[in-house]
Hints:
heterodimer; A: 319 residues; mainly alpha; two-stranded antiparallel ribbon; 13 helices; 78% helix; elongated; B: 111 residues; alpha+beta; 3-stranded antiparallel β-sheet
Amino acid sequence: MTATSSPTDRYVAATLRSLPERQRQDIEAELRALIADAIDDRREAGVDVDVAERQVLIELGAPARLAASYTDRSLHLIGPEFYLDYVRILKVLLSTLVPVWFVIFALVTFADGSPAAVAFGAALYSALGTAMSIAFFTTLVFAIIERVSAVRTKRRANWDPSSLPEVRDSRGYFKELIGGVVFLAVIVVALVLTETLGTVEGPEGAEIGPIASGLWESGLFYIALLIAIASIAFHLLSYYTGWSTSNAIANTVFVVLFAVPAIWLAASGRLLSEDYFRAVGWPEGANVIAVVVIVVVILLTASDAVGGWVRASKKRRTR
Amino acid sequence: MLNEEALATHRQELRRGTIVLACLLLLSRPNYGYALLDALEKSGFEVDANTLYPLLRRLEKQGLLTSEWNTDDSRPRKFYATSKEGAALADTLKRDWHALDTAFLSLKDES
């Protein structure tokens, strides 16, 4: 810094920084006049100018706090309305997924030929990373829920004793959500396991897994995983806003986005590696499993989509 | 004995609404922030600068105060004045205040 700005300049700048653009000019002019008036008053009482400025700024308090009270903005990430649910979901996710991930990762690494100590260390490291990702994304989803003021006002505006969910129903829904997360984790783990542990030697001498190798390497599974995670976050959001028709529509879009490519891949024989099933001595396996996958995907996604519409219509009836 | 922090919180809660009423009454004659702060203190209303200034803007936004920049002096200042709605609210709040006062007095008689 070449020219030193006065404490008042720095105070005003720090306050304005977190204010909306259109309010800045007016608040700046007023704030400067208020500070100058207060300083003048103290100087008349015989206080030294630097001391007076310091006292006045201290009395006004931290700039961030002053700015927050100018804008009525909250200074918390997750407020009291969602905090308990946040802690509950975070606890469940951390206490189930992290140990499972740790054990699976350690077993896979160990089976892959690493010494036990190395496998343990790698699993610990990976589990820590998983825990951090879970914490981050859970916090992110709740911070967004907290900031979508429509969610809060909707929640308050719609509140009526008759709109209270059935006790069994609400807990059941939470269980469903957690069930969805665990189901997803099992699928991911099973995929990773078979692709790393269950490989056999293919016709060209390369190690191949049951998933068609091009597909496995294409990164499509990561996209599918992302859609699934987004869908879980969406279910959580809908749990708070209440299921409306638009939620049910959005949920159906999610389902179609996931189901159509999945069914197409399985039906066109692009999902599984026929070489793998030939190598393990079950040549028709690829077809059998493809049919199972199609049926399971149809059942799960249809029940999810229909579930959204049922919840949306239930909500309307209670009103 | 109640600890100091809890005591301060209780007193602050009790005072909170009274500042709005005092501002609406005092600003029947237009005034600017610092002078208003001074006037409030002199009349016996304790309020912090960082509470009062944002409050004035909130009241203005609600249409209870009007504001105008006064550039007659060497230092331009934002002057606030109670609007018609503000004066009506002040009347209501004042009646409520008297009703509360009567209620407290009657409590005292019974005990």
